[in-house]
Specification:
There is one protein chain. The chain is built from 5 helices and no strands. The protein is an all-alpha fold. It has a single domain, classed as lambda repressor-like DNA-binding domains (434 Repressor (Amino-terminal Domain), Orthogonal Bundle). It starts with 7 loop residues before the first helix and ends with a helix.
Length: 71
């Protein structure tokens, strides 16, 4: 592990809620390629605070649960 969050809990939640990367990328306004890079921590990409807020709203993640899914 390289010190970056793995986002495995977020990936599991998306699978559970049957939300595709394509669906969520469109909801937060980024390309599917960019979304994939960010959720997989590729090329040093990570979600912005604004994107985290949009994801939480769309996926219905409570504010108290943000660290579980993003850190």
């Amino acid at each position: 592990m390289n010190g970056e969050p793995e986002l495995e809990n977020l990936k599991a939640l998306l699978r559970f809620k049957k939300i595709s990367y394509k669906e969520l990328s469109e909801a937060i306004g980024v390309s599917i390629g960019t979304f994939s890079e960010k959720i997989n921590n590729r090329r040093g990409r990570s979600f912005t605070i604004s994107e985290v807020k949009k994801i939480c709203e769309y996926v219905e993640i409570n504010q108290e649960e943000i660290p579980k899914y993003f850190f």
